[in-house]
Amino acid sequence: MAIFINSDSKVIVQGMTGSEGQKHTARMLASGTNIVGGVNPRKAGTSVDFDGTDIPVFGSVADAMAETGANVTVLFVPPAFTKAAVIEAVDAGIELAVIITEGVPVADTAEFFAYAQSKGVRLIGPNCPGLITPGQSNVGITPANITGSGKIGLVSKSGTLTYQMMFELRDIGFTTAVGIGGDPVIGTTHIDCLEAFQNDPETEAIVMIGEIGGDAEERAAAYIKEHVTKPVVGYVAGFEAPEGKTMGHAGAIVSGSAGTAQAKKEALEAAGVKVGKTPTETADLMRAIING
Fold first, then answer.
1. pLDDT (0 to 100) of residue 71
2. DSSP H/E element including 57
3. So what's the pLDDT on residue 261?
4. What's the structural domain count of the chain?
5. Which of 150, 135, 147, 128 is nearest to 24 (CA)?
6. Whether residues 157 and 282 fall in one domain
7. CB-CB neighbours of 240 under 10 Å
8. In the annotation, is 249 catalytic?
9. 3-state secondary structure of 275
10. pLDDT digits (tens, 9 = 90+) for 157-197
11. Pick the catalytic residue: 24, 190, 227, 249?
12. What is the pLDDT of residue 121?
């Protein structure tokens, strides 16, 4: 089992013909992802060769879905065009859109997220590494060779910490690892992933990675207390950040006690979550639970 993607996912790549799109399409294909097409209105009817695998390019998401039965799209589209690309995918009826692009204006994200919600389409990102169900499907930029399939679900605001945690716990492995992104407005939250992992019979325990700024982790802690029966371990990045300092990655700002790593740690621990002070300590807490 897995959440959001599996071996049956048929993936298209919006922006596949650009340099980033080509690079990561090749990596996704190499890790076993079923990529069935790319989208570029100016190159419709052509194809791109990836080490002997010819991937067709369609003029629109709707055309790609009609021809291939695609149900997932991943976007490598410049920030200025991201809103239009997401709305196009939503209008075409895609089930899941994974938005890798960094630097999308928050107003654009708020607009296309509200639109996607109204149409029942799940978004992941923007400004995220995407998600991976090891051995089945890898949608985004997560390195596929750092871990295998296993019993742990992972949800993380930080891309690099996603990779580190996957590597630290490679001896156990993951059902699905989701990098939700650190922007102020994101399509899928910690809580959305916690709910999905709680409902996934093969996920035995959950790792949740947060960071300073905002109150997402506090809200996740309240959700865990009420609804999650599986063991959860956590890590909050930013214990050493100076108070009042704006952090570039998420536009996170620490003000008073709200949003600090310590406040988030306390909220999570009050909900029964074991919180590590470092990623390695967090991995050790999880390993103790799994091997306990």
1. 98
2. strand 53-58
3. 86
4. 2
5. 128
6. yes
7. 7
8. yes
9. strand
10. 999 999 999 999 999 999 999 999 999 999 999 999 999 99
11. 249
12. 98
